[in-house]
Design a protein that fits this description.
This protein is of the alpha/beta class. The chain contains seven helices and nine strands. The longest helix has 10 residues. About 25% of the residues are buried.
Length: about 200
Amino acid sequence: ALRATQIAWDGIAVIVNFANPVRALSSAQVRGLFSAEITNWSELDGAPARVEVIPRTSANNLTSGFQNSLGLTERMAASAPPVRSDQKVLSLVSGRDATVSYISLAAALKAQEDGISIHILTVDQVDPGEATVKNGRYRLRRPVLMLTATQPDSLTESFLSFVRSVDGQQLLRTMFVPVEQSVPAAVPSNVQQLDHPLPSS
């Protein structure tokens, strides 16, 4: 009995320790890491070390987005208990050379700016960033949704209109990637997508 409306995109960054020589992977290789088909970094021209997968909790919105982006339908590999927060993941990956995990792209970029010893992997020869997440070339992304009543009141509709406006999207840009309506979006079937361009300021 809820209506879901997409208001932004959230890029999903695959991160490794900065000491790891692996810098770029294909989607299939990322899928192999997180499905335990690839268990040693030497299989990816890295150092001969066993892959340590830091899993995320199943309740984390990133998890479903990550699995959907890669077509992972079975339970993912894990070398440690599931982690809920991006901050904890950053702490674990930056402290262990053989680890790999995934976090929100905005959090990963901020961590790099702050000098945390992680590296964001290029996937399918596409660097993750606002432009590539928005246009869909970077495949690892999830829709950010706002949930309302099926028939929301006028105040709720006004707030939703603001979130979808240029000013609202600019505020969201600090954490997410603004939506781009000209790009077909792979989003859940019950999500209401924008049926008109964002209003100009």
